[in-house]
Amino acid sequence: MPDQLLFAIEVTLNGLMAGVLYALVALGFVLIFKASGIFNYAQGVMALFAALTLVGIMEGQVPFEHLINATFGTEIHGFGWEVPALLAILLTMVTMVLFAWLVNWLVLRHLVGQEPIILFMATIGLAYFLEGFGDMMWGSDIKALDVGLPQGINSWIDETTLDLFGYGFFIDNLDIAATIIAAILVAVLVAFSQYTKQGRALRAVADDHQAALSVGISLNFIWVLTWSIAGFVALVAGIMWGTKSGVQFSLSLIALKALPVLMLGGFTSIPGAIVGGLIIGVGEKLFEFLVGPLVGGATENWFAYVLALIFLVFRPQGLFGERIIERV
Amino acid sequence: MLYREAGDFKTTYTGDSQTFPIRLDRWGYYLILAVAALLVPLIINDYWLNAVMLPLLIYAIAALGLNILTGYCGQVSLGTGGFMAVGAYACYKLMTAFPDINIAIHIVISGFITAAVGMLFGLPSLRIKGFYLAVATLAAQFFLVWLFNRVPWFYNYSASGQISAPERTLMGFRITGPETQAWAVYLFCLVFVVASAWICRNLTRGSMGRKWMAIRDMDIAAEIIGVNPLRAKLSAFGISSFFVGISGALFFAVYLGAVEVGEVFGINKSFLVLFMVIIGGLGSILGSFLGAAFMVLMPVLLKNVLVGGLGWPTDLAAHLEFMIVGGLIVFFLIVEPHGLAQLWRITKEKLRLWPFPH
């Protein structure tokens, strides 16, 4: 096979892997949007916060140590212990549930019935707050995250493809792990929403708030539940991206990567988020590979948006979104 | 007692339809204008100019522009930073290509160029609504910033990829470049601000503004009563981008002097201007000023209190600033979704009845 084609296949495969990660973030958006009609801009910062908390707990950092040191003139530097990854993940999850509850109690409860755009702005405010809060709690330096996921080039694929085509594909073990974990996560979420009582209640709320209320489903509980699940998805996404490129501010920008995915797939569809993620992942990598060198590179920043924009002009509800019906 | 409309009789149509129908409001407006134009230039120094007055004035123009689009026409835009960049780069290209022409004219022309770009990116708004549109405007943000970063023609092939404003004078006074006089720069921006506010105010209370508001309140109903959505939406995008472009041009040429596009006109700028509009009040000219003042003054104040007063490290103060900005936005949305302008309106209502509220 010609080299160009082989490169293109490799790029496509890597694009698929990246797409899975985008889909993972987009999934958190879809869950909250379906359940409460809130477009949660803070999802990316939630991933950052979850990853920061995880690293902080694992390394035994004292929360707010910088603040405490600055205010009281003390010299605290960590508890001096290390927490195993699994326990730390559990503790982080507890934090995210607590966060979900607080958000619901302090913010969303007061904004019920407001226009969607107001709710959207509120989550932008939330994102800013959480960003400052996370940095203040755990410090803003770049941290390495290692929860024991495999990393580095997958030598089996490299050797097999070298034998077959005479060119070894570079595929990161981490990406493969991420794909598997994402697949499991989606399966678990689907099973949860189909076969458990809470999952059914969640779908009922997504369908119709009023009707759900009238059969005795507690909206408050469901919202806390959704935000907790979104927190969990954020944690998984945070672990993946954090392991890949370190836990740092740019992690919160994955929310911006997930937005075009959502537009493409439709805000209300879980399959849409996954398919959209894959399309965007492959599309932007291929575009960068084929057209990037001609126009000066770094097209990844905007390609997804422009693709989604052009797509939306022809199909305003996205690939799998519910048809928009306007009643007067 | 003081704030009364009783006895303020209107005998002509012009008298009845003036911008400030209540006498005290009008005097207040003239007073503020007089202080801003006559008193402030006498006492202003470089610190106040660069830390407070220039950002305040320039952001006020950007907020006015976004307020037309988001507050009056109901189209949420997250592309303000990108459009400011268009203004800045248009101004740069004009300044370097036609050095003999007055800088004020360059700035106005960059406004028109931005308006054209804004209308181009506003085209999808005819098909896409709500969130989808908000996200679609992000396409403008990222694409424009990338364009100015990657195409060397825009920054005149300079090695650093930055653009920096050459020295220009207006009536013999230096406006851009090093060693400008604080008062001249201040007055230069003030003229733009006052003119923008005047145009905005009169546009929004005329037929055009009413069409925008009809589209905002319910686009289908507006279409039925004869508002052309194409023209209303595109004119809102165009006029909004015009002001945003002017503010971008001023931001680059007068305030910063040298600009690296990704840093200065990134997505954070879009959010900042959006916050100004929300905190100030959607659909209010006064709100744009209040919002800009709030978002410009608060960090300065916080920095002075925390770093200067309490001796905190600057990074902690920066984190706290993020928390406070975020918290305040949520707080405002919960307590007063219509922003500072609404608070002012309520205060005026109360004042009218004071001291006999019943």
Automatic annotation (TrEMBL), chain A:
<dbReference type="GO" id="GO:0006865">
    <property type="term" value="P:amino acid transport"/>
</dbReference>
<feature type="transmembrane region" description="Helical">
    <location>
        <begin position="217"/>
        <end position="241"/>
    </location>
</feature>
<feature type="transmembrane region" description="Helical">
    <location>
        <begin position="289"/>
        <end position="314"/>
    </location>
</feature>
<feature type="transmembrane region" description="Helical">
    <location>
        <begin position="12"/>
        <end position="33"/>
    </location>
</feature>
<dbReference type="GO" id="GO:0005886">
    <property type="term" value="C:plasma membrane"/>
</dbReference>
<dbReference type="Pfam" id="PF02653">
    <property type="entry name" value="BPD_transp_2"/>
</dbReference>
<feature type="transmembrane region" description="Helical">
    <location>
        <begin position="176"/>
        <end position="196"/>
    </location>
</feature>
<protein>
    <submittedName>
        <fullName>Branched-chain amino acid ABC transporter permease</fullName>
    </submittedName>
</protein>
<keyword id="KW-0813">Transport</keyword>
<dbReference type="InterPro" id="IPR052157">
    <property type="entry name" value="BCAA_transport_permease"/>
</dbReference>
<comment type="similarity">
    <text>Belongs to the binding-protein-dependent transport system permease family. LivHM subfamily.</text>
</comment>
<keyword id="KW-0812">Transmembrane</keyword>
<feature type="transmembrane region" description="Helical">
    <location>
        <begin position="84"/>
        <end position="105"/>
    </location>
</feature>
<feature type="transmembrane region" description="Helical">
    <location>
        <begin position="117"/>
        <end position="138"/>
    </location>
</feature>
<dbReference type="GO" id="GO:0022857">
    <property type="term" value="F:transmembrane transporter activity"/>
</dbReference>
<keyword id="KW-0472">Membrane</keyword>
<dbReference type="InterPro" id="IPR001851">
    <property type="entry name" value="ABC_transp_permease"/>
</dbReference>
<keyword id="KW-1133">Transmembrane helix</keyword>
<feature type="transmembrane region" description="Helical">
    <location>
        <begin position="45"/>
        <end position="64"/>
    </location>
</feature>
<keyword id="KW-0029">Amino-acid transport</keyword>
<keyword id="KW-1003">Cell membrane</keyword>
<feature type="transmembrane region" description="Helical">
    <location>
        <begin position="261"/>
        <end position="282"/>
    </location>
</feature>
TrEMBL record, chain B:
<keyword id="KW-1133">Transmembrane helix</keyword>
<dbReference type="InterPro" id="IPR043428">
    <property type="entry name" value="LivM-like"/>
</dbReference>
<feature type="transmembrane region" description="Helical">
    <location>
        <begin position="236"/>
        <end position="259"/>
    </location>
</feature>
<feature type="transmembrane region" description="Helical">
    <location>
        <begin position="130"/>
        <end position="148"/>
    </location>
</feature>
<dbReference type="Pfam" id="PF02653">
    <property type="entry name" value="BPD_transp_2"/>
</dbReference>
<protein>
    <submittedName>
        <fullName>Branched-chain amino acid ABC transporter permease</fullName>
    </submittedName>
</protein>
<keyword id="KW-0472">Membrane</keyword>
<feature type="transmembrane region" description="Helical">
    <location>
        <begin position="316"/>
        <end position="335"/>
    </location>
</feature>
<dbReference type="InterPro" id="IPR001851">
    <property type="entry name" value="ABC_transp_permease"/>
</dbReference>
<feature type="transmembrane region" description="Helical">
    <location>
        <begin position="101"/>
        <end position="123"/>
    </location>
</feature>
<dbReference type="GO" id="GO:0005886">
    <property type="term" value="C:plasma membrane"/>
</dbReference>
<keyword id="KW-0812">Transmembrane</keyword>
<dbReference type="GO" id="GO:0015658">
    <property type="term" value="F:branched-chain amino acid transmembrane transporter activity"/>
</dbReference>
<feature type="transmembrane region" description="Helical">
    <location>
        <begin position="27"/>
        <end position="44"/>
    </location>
</feature>
<feature type="transmembrane region" description="Helical">
    <location>
        <begin position="50"/>
        <end position="69"/>
    </location>
</feature>
<feature type="transmembrane region" description="Helical">
    <location>
        <begin position="183"/>
        <end position="200"/>
    </location>
</feature>
<feature type="transmembrane region" description="Helical">
    <location>
        <begin position="271"/>
        <end position="296"/>
    </location>
</feature>
<keyword id="KW-1003">Cell membrane</keyword>
